[in-house]
Amino acid sequence: DIIPQPLLDQYLSMTDPARAQTVDTEIAKHCAYSLPGVALTLGRQNWHCLKDTYETLASDVQWKVRRTLAFSIHELAVILGDQLTAADLVPVFNGFLKDLDEVRIGVLKHLYDFLKLLHADKRREYLYQLQEFVVTDNSRNWRFRYELAEQLILILELYNPNDVYDYLRHIALTLCSDKVSEVRWISFKLVVAILQKFYANSANALGLNFINELIVRFRHCSKWVGRQAFAFICQVG
Protein backbone atom coordinates (compact mmCIF):
# COMPACT_ATOMS: atom_id res chain seq x y z
CA ASP A 1 0.00 0.00 0.00
CA ILE A 2 3.00 2.29 0.50
CA ILE A 3 5.12 1.52 -2.57
CA PRO A 4 3.76 -0.22 -5.70
CA GLN A 5 4.97 -3.82 -5.60
CA PRO A 6 6.57 -3.70 -9.11
CA LEU A 7 8.59 -0.64 -8.05
CA LEU A 8 9.77 -2.35 -4.85
CA ASP A 9 10.66 -5.50 -6.81
CA GLN A 10 12.64 -3.37 -9.25
CA TYR A 11 14.55 -1.77 -6.38
CA LEU A 12 15.30 -5.11 -4.69
CA SER A 13 16.59 -6.52 -7.98
CA MET A 14 19.38 -3.91 -8.00
CA THR A 15 21.55 -6.33 -6.00
CA ASP A 16 21.40 -8.93 -8.78
CA PRO A 17 24.99 -9.37 -10.12
CA ALA A 18 23.62 -9.77 -13.64
CA ARG A 19 22.24 -6.24 -13.52
CA ALA A 20 25.64 -4.86 -12.60
CA GLN A 21 27.05 -6.44 -15.76
CA THR A 22 24.25 -5.40 -18.11
CA VAL A 23 22.83 -2.17 -16.66
CA ASP A 24 25.36 -0.30 -14.50
CA THR A 25 28.46 -1.44 -12.61
CA GLU A 26 27.59 1.09 -9.87
CA ILE A 27 24.00 -0.09 -9.43
CA ALA A 28 24.63 -1.84 -6.10
CA LYS A 29 26.18 1.36 -4.73
CA HIS A 30 23.12 3.36 -5.82
CA CYS A 31 20.93 0.76 -4.12
CA ALA A 32 22.93 1.07 -0.88
CA TYR A 33 22.80 4.87 -1.00
CA SER A 34 19.01 4.88 -1.33
CA LEU A 35 18.28 2.19 1.25
CA PRO A 36 17.71 4.42 4.33
CA GLY A 37 15.19 6.46 2.33
CA VAL A 38 13.37 3.33 1.19
CA ALA A 39 13.39 1.97 4.76
CA LEU A 40 11.97 5.26 6.07
CA THR A 41 9.22 5.20 3.43
CA LEU A 42 8.28 1.59 4.15
CA GLY A 43 8.46 2.00 7.93
CA ARG A 44 9.99 -0.37 10.46
CA GLN A 45 6.94 -2.68 10.27
CA ASN A 46 7.97 -3.53 6.69
CA TRP A 47 11.70 -3.92 7.35
CA HIS A 48 11.40 -7.63 6.52
CA CYS A 49 11.01 -6.60 2.86
CA LEU A 50 14.49 -5.02 2.89
CA LYS A 51 16.40 -7.15 5.37
CA ASP A 52 17.79 -9.69 2.87
CA THR A 53 18.75 -6.94 0.43
CA TYR A 54 20.55 -5.04 3.19
CA GLU A 55 22.53 -8.12 4.23
CA THR A 56 23.43 -8.80 0.60
CA LEU A 57 24.73 -5.26 0.18
CA ALA A 58 26.62 -5.43 3.50
CA SER A 59 28.63 -8.38 2.16
CA ASP A 60 29.12 -6.98 -1.36
CA VAL A 61 32.60 -7.54 -2.79
CA GLN A 62 32.89 -3.85 -3.68
CA TRP A 63 34.15 -1.89 -0.68
CA LYS A 64 32.41 1.25 -1.98
CA VAL A 65 29.05 -0.44 -1.46
CA ARG A 66 29.93 -1.49 2.10
CA ARG A 67 31.34 1.98 2.78
CA THR A 68 28.06 3.59 1.72
CA LEU A 69 26.14 1.44 4.19
CA ALA A 70 28.70 2.10 6.94
CA PHE A 71 28.15 5.85 6.61
CA SER A 72 24.36 5.49 6.98
CA ILE A 73 23.96 2.66 9.52
CA HIS A 74 23.31 5.13 12.35
CA GLU A 75 20.47 6.70 10.36
CA LEU A 76 18.97 3.28 9.67
CA ALA A 77 19.19 2.47 13.39
CA VAL A 78 17.00 5.51 14.19
CA ILE A 79 14.45 4.37 11.59
CA LEU A 80 14.32 0.76 12.82
CA GLY A 81 14.38 1.30 16.58
CA ASP A 82 16.36 -0.50 19.28
CA GLN A 83 14.97 -4.04 18.90
CA LEU A 84 15.50 -4.36 15.15
CA THR A 85 18.84 -2.56 15.45
CA ALA A 86 20.08 -5.08 18.03
CA ALA A 87 18.85 -8.04 15.98
CA ASP A 88 19.70 -7.02 12.41
CA LEU A 89 22.09 -4.05 12.40
CA VAL A 90 24.52 -4.89 15.22
CA PRO A 91 25.89 -7.98 13.36
CA VAL A 92 26.46 -5.85 10.25
CA PHE A 93 28.02 -3.10 12.38
CA ASN A 94 30.40 -5.65 13.92
CA GLY A 95 31.43 -6.77 10.44
CA PHE A 96 32.17 -3.19 9.39
CA LEU A 97 34.41 -2.75 12.46
CA LYS A 98 36.73 -5.40 11.03
CA ASP A 99 36.58 -4.17 7.43
CA LEU A 100 38.96 -2.02 5.39
CA ASP A 101 39.78 1.44 6.71
CA GLU A 102 37.69 2.92 3.87
CA VAL A 103 34.66 1.15 5.37
CA ARG A 104 35.59 1.51 9.05
CA ILE A 105 35.79 5.30 8.73
CA GLY A 106 32.07 5.36 7.92
CA VAL A 107 31.30 3.60 11.18
CA LEU A 108 33.82 5.71 13.09
CA LYS A 109 32.46 9.07 11.93
CA HIS A 110 29.09 8.30 13.50
CA LEU A 111 30.20 5.96 16.28
CA TYR A 112 28.60 8.04 19.04
CA ASP A 113 25.33 8.34 17.10
CA PHE A 114 25.11 4.55 16.78
CA LEU A 115 26.27 3.57 20.27
CA LYS A 116 23.85 5.94 22.03
CA LEU A 117 20.95 4.06 20.41
CA LEU A 118 21.97 0.74 21.98
CA HIS A 119 20.96 -0.53 25.40
CA ALA A 120 23.61 0.00 28.07
CA ASP A 121 24.54 -3.68 28.33
CA LYS A 122 25.00 -4.00 24.57
CA ARG A 123 26.95 -0.73 24.50
CA ARG A 124 29.41 -2.00 27.10
CA GLU A 125 30.40 -4.83 24.76
CA TYR A 126 32.12 -2.27 22.53
CA LEU A 127 34.37 -0.82 25.20
CA TYR A 128 37.22 -3.20 24.46
CA GLN A 129 36.78 -2.93 20.69
CA LEU A 130 37.19 0.84 20.68
CA GLN A 131 40.96 0.51 21.09
CA GLU A 132 41.09 -1.43 17.80
CA PHE A 133 40.42 1.87 16.01
CA VAL A 134 43.90 3.05 17.01
CA VAL A 135 45.35 0.51 14.56
CA THR A 136 44.83 1.30 10.87
CA ASP A 137 45.79 -0.37 7.61
CA ASN A 138 48.00 2.62 6.85
CA SER A 139 49.71 4.35 9.79
CA ARG A 140 49.87 7.56 7.72
CA ASN A 141 46.08 7.73 7.84
CA TRP A 142 46.21 10.18 10.75
CA ARG A 143 42.72 11.58 10.11
CA PHE A 144 41.37 8.22 11.24
CA ARG A 145 42.97 8.64 14.66
CA TYR A 146 41.87 12.29 14.80
CA GLU A 147 38.28 11.21 14.16
CA LEU A 148 38.59 8.59 16.90
CA ALA A 149 39.64 11.21 19.47
CA GLU A 150 36.76 13.49 18.42
CA GLN A 151 34.23 10.68 18.77
CA LEU A 152 35.60 9.60 22.15
CA ILE A 153 35.00 13.09 23.54
CA LEU A 154 31.30 12.57 22.73
CA ILE A 155 31.24 8.90 23.77
CA LEU A 156 32.44 9.72 27.31
CA GLU A 157 28.89 10.55 28.34
CA LEU A 158 27.71 7.02 27.46
CA TYR A 159 29.91 5.24 30.01
CA ASN A 160 30.44 5.44 33.76
CA PRO A 161 33.73 6.78 35.23
CA ASN A 162 35.10 3.30 36.00
CA ASP A 163 34.62 2.15 32.40
CA VAL A 164 36.23 5.37 31.15
CA TYR A 165 39.21 4.78 33.44
CA ASP A 166 39.61 1.10 32.60
CA TYR A 167 39.20 1.35 28.81
CA LEU A 168 39.11 4.84 27.30
CA ARG A 169 41.95 6.29 29.36
CA HIS A 170 44.48 3.99 27.67
CA ILE A 171 43.34 5.07 24.20
CA ALA A 172 43.60 8.75 25.15
CA LEU A 173 47.16 8.34 26.43
CA THR A 174 48.19 6.50 23.26
CA LEU A 175 46.74 9.23 21.06
CA CYS A 176 48.50 11.93 23.10
CA SER A 177 51.81 10.47 21.92
CA ASP A 178 50.82 10.31 18.25
CA LYS A 179 53.39 11.32 15.64
CA VAL A 180 50.99 13.85 14.09
CA SER A 181 50.49 17.12 15.96
CA GLU A 182 46.82 17.51 14.95
CA VAL A 183 46.04 14.15 16.54
CA ARG A 184 47.92 15.11 19.70
CA TRP A 185 46.04 18.41 19.95
CA ILE A 186 42.58 16.86 19.82
CA SER A 187 43.79 14.16 22.23
CA PHE A 188 44.76 16.78 24.81
CA LYS A 189 41.13 17.94 24.70
CA LEU A 190 40.06 14.32 25.19
CA VAL A 191 42.29 13.99 28.27
CA VAL A 192 40.78 17.12 29.79
CA ALA A 193 37.26 15.89 28.99
CA ILE A 194 38.06 12.62 30.80
CA LEU A 195 39.25 14.54 33.88
CA GLN A 196 36.09 16.65 33.80
CA LYS A 197 34.05 13.45 33.58
CA PHE A 198 35.70 12.06 36.71
CA TYR A 199 35.24 15.17 38.83
CA ALA A 200 31.71 15.87 37.57
CA ASN A 201 30.76 12.38 38.78
CA SER A 202 32.60 12.73 42.11
CA ALA A 203 35.14 10.08 41.05
CA ASN A 204 37.91 12.13 42.66
CA ALA A 205 40.19 9.15 43.30
CA LEU A 206 40.13 8.21 39.61
CA GLY A 207 40.81 11.81 38.67
CA LEU A 208 43.78 12.03 41.00
CA ASN A 209 45.21 8.74 39.73
CA PHE A 210 44.89 9.99 36.16
CA ILE A 211 46.58 13.31 36.98
CA ASN A 212 49.47 11.46 38.63
CA GLU A 213 49.77 9.28 35.54
CA LEU A 214 49.92 12.36 33.30
CA ILE A 215 52.65 13.84 35.51
CA VAL A 216 54.77 10.70 35.36
CA ARG A 217 54.18 10.10 31.65
CA PHE A 218 54.52 13.65 30.33
CA ARG A 219 55.73 16.13 32.96
CA HIS A 220 58.79 13.98 33.76
CA CYS A 221 59.27 12.72 30.20
CA SER A 222 62.90 12.65 29.02
CA LYS A 223 61.82 14.01 25.62
CA TRP A 224 60.84 17.64 25.24
CA VAL A 225 57.75 16.74 23.18
CA GLY A 226 56.34 14.87 26.20
CA ARG A 227 56.91 17.83 28.52
CA GLN A 228 55.37 20.09 25.89
CA ALA A 229 52.34 17.79 25.81
CA PHE A 230 51.91 18.25 29.57
CA ALA A 231 52.01 22.06 29.17
CA PHE A 232 49.40 21.89 26.40
CA ILE A 233 47.12 19.65 28.50
CA CYS A 234 47.33 22.22 31.32
CA GLN A 235 46.58 24.98 28.81
CA VAL A 236 43.51 23.19 27.44
CA GLY A 237 42.28 22.46 30.97
Number of domains: 2
CATH homologous superfamily (4th level) name of the largest domain: Leucine-rich Repeat Variant
What's the CATH class label of the largest domain?
A: Mainly Alpha
Unreliable residue runs = none
At CATH level 2, the architecture of the largest domain is: Alpha Horseshoe
Order of helices and strands: HHHHHHHHHHHHH
* Beta-strand fraction estimate: under 5%
GO molecular function: protein phosphatase regulator activity
Protein name: PP4R1 phosphatase
Organism: Dicaeum eximium
Keywords: Repeat
Report on the structure:
The protein has helices at 5-12, 17-22, 27-42, 51-58, 63-97, 101-109, 111-115, 120-124, 142-155, 161-176, 181-200, 204-219, 224-236. The chain is an all-alpha fold and 237 residues long. Helix 10 packs antiparallel against helix 11. The radius of gyration is 21 Å and the shape is elongated. The mean pLDDT is 92. Keywords: Repeat.
Write the layout of secondary structure elements.
Blueprint: H1 5-12, H2 17-22, H3 27-42, H4 51-58, H5 63-97, H6 101-109, H7 111-115, H8 120-124, H9 142-155, H10 161-176, H11 181-200, H12 204-219, H13 224-236
Helix pairs in contact: 3-5, 4-5, 5-6, 6-9, 9-11, 10-11, 11-12, 11-13, 12-13
GO cellular component, one term: cytoplasm
GO molecular function: protein phosphatase regulator activity
Organism: Dicaeum eximium
